[in-house]
Amino acid sequence: MRRAARIPNLAERLFLANIGQLLTLHSSARNPGPRRGAELQQLGVIEDAAVLCVGGKIVSVGATKDALRDPWLKKNRRKLVEIDCSGKVVLPGFVDSHTHPVFARPRLVDFEKRIQGASYEEIAAAGGGIRSSLEGVRKAPKADLVSKLLTALRDMAAHGTTTVEAKSGYGLTLESELKSLEAIREAARCWAGTVVPTLLGAHVVPGEFKGRSQKYVQLVCKEMIPQVAKQRLAQFADVFRDKGAFTTTEALEIFEAAARHGLGIRAHIGQLSHTRLEPFLRFKPASLDHLDQVNGEDIGQLVKHDTVATFVPGANYFLGLKDYPQARKLIDAGVPVALASDYNPGTSPTPSMPMAMSLACTHMKMSPAEAIAAATINGAWALRIADRKGSIEPGKDADLAIFSVKDYREISYWFGVNRCSMTILNGAVAKPE
Fold first, then answer.
1. CB contact at 8 A, 291 and 331
2. Is 383 helix (H, G, I), strand (E, B) or coil?
3. 71 and 111 in one domain?
4. Among candidates 47, 62, 87, which has minimal Cα distance to 15?
5. Angle CA(124)–CA(356)–CA(168) in degrees, nearest 5?
């Protein structure tokens, strides 16, 4: 078995044995960056496999028969929590690298209006959309936001997710954005998984700044970003660059402020309309998300960078859109891609990464293997935590998802049903309720 240099002397010890298919997604020494092209198909499958986890870390990975011959395991086997994974698939816990989980209530009016034929832009113009979530978050006690967020995180874990990027963005005042990020921090402390917080103060221009977008940009740049950085409430800053949101000039100004204050950069871009990507790439963003509207020049620029193109097909599905991101063009060109749920109350109210993967396969023509790599190791690259997340290798965090299926392709095949039987988050076992 591939073994880490030292076994931590801690009590938490898990031994997963007899795994039908183990998908390790082990890293390639030839390419230390995110997966591209044919690399997305390489899952590192081991049959009749075993994984030993101690102290929240993966210690060894290999065949069950080799594990059972290991002297240390023979000596300590009675001290382990042994999990029989016969006939099951084990893979890295999903890394959901794009979510909006801090909101007060669902947007049911938007849902009905869309069914009746209203477009995303028409709903927003009528006072729905993102702006309709502001009042709830602004008025909600922080404790309520923490409680709702914890419920969402547990729902995500029940579907195999162990790492979640969590954005603010439904307050859009200094006070409510700080409150949202504080709620994320408090919920993260109560959840066994890993949460990566992102400031999305630049979600849309709130109604009180209508016609004065530059004034709001100054609020984001001179108040929100400095306060968030000072209090270490976020690792990234995000901007929604699109029609109805922020212009390229405004987005770049916000990127400049984020970079000055040491925040990583990511962006919603190309969802509703095309935006040239080249001006943004000089900031080396960790990811550019949605990318429904891209052209050959954009793809050519993305190939030159390690910026991950993150697809969120749940939004396309829920909005009833005919077109989905051009995954095949980007993958075949060599752009690193990830998949995320885009969990949010308006356009993608799903905690299920397997659902996002199924949509990627059926509507974007990604293979089941590509979908898994995009939802695990490349999701970790999109959050710049691939050194400890996204694959099952000695020394990495013990984040694993166990599925009651015999073949990994079934994870994307079945939809509308949860086949995840157990999730291990930093070494802690969680079973779906």
1. no
2. coil
3. no
4. 62
5. 50
Note the Cα 65 to chain centre separation in Å: 35
> Cα 407 from chain centroid?
24
Q: Please tell me the predicted confidence (pLDDT) of residue 432.
A: 65
CB-based burial label for 214 (10 Å; 0-12, 13-18, 19+): middle
At 8 the pLDDT is 43
Where does 232-289 have alpha helices with state H? Answer: 248-260, 278-281
Contact yes or no for 149/184 (Cβ under 8 A): yes
pLDDT mean by block of 10 residues, the chain; 433 residues: 45 90 87 92 97 96 94 90 97 98 91 85 77 89 97 97 98 97 97 98 93 96 98 98 94 97 97 94 97 95 96 96 96 98 96 98 98 98 97 97 98 96 95 65
Residues 173 and 251 in one domain: yes
Two tokens at 366? Answer: 């990604």
- Are 205 and 220 contacting, i.e. CB atoms less than 8 angstroms apart? no
User: Do residues 188 and 283 both lie within one domain?
Assistant: yes
Verify that 60 and 194 share a domain, yes or no.
no
Phi, psi of 166 (to 5 degrees): -120, 120
User: What backbone phi and psi angles, to 5 degrees, belong to 107?
Assistant: -105, 80
Contact 418, 425 (CB under 8 A): no
Residues 84 and 112 in one domain: no
In this structure, the answer to whether residues 409 and 366 fall within a common structural domain is no
Query: d(Cα 256, Cα 334) in Å, to the nearest integer?
Result: 28
Q: What is this structure's pTM?
A: 0.94
Q: Which of 260, 197, 196 is CA-nearest to residue 225?
A: 260
- Alpha carbon distance 196, 123 (integer Å): 30
Query: Is the CA virtual torsion 376, 384, 14, 43 positive or negative?
Result: positive
Tell whether 363 and 406 lie within a shared domain. Answer: no
Extract the tokens encoding 153: 């995180």
Place of tokens 């020049």: 297
Q: d(Cα 315, Cα 355) in Å, to the nearest integer?
A: 11
Cα gap 241→270, rounded to integer Å:
8
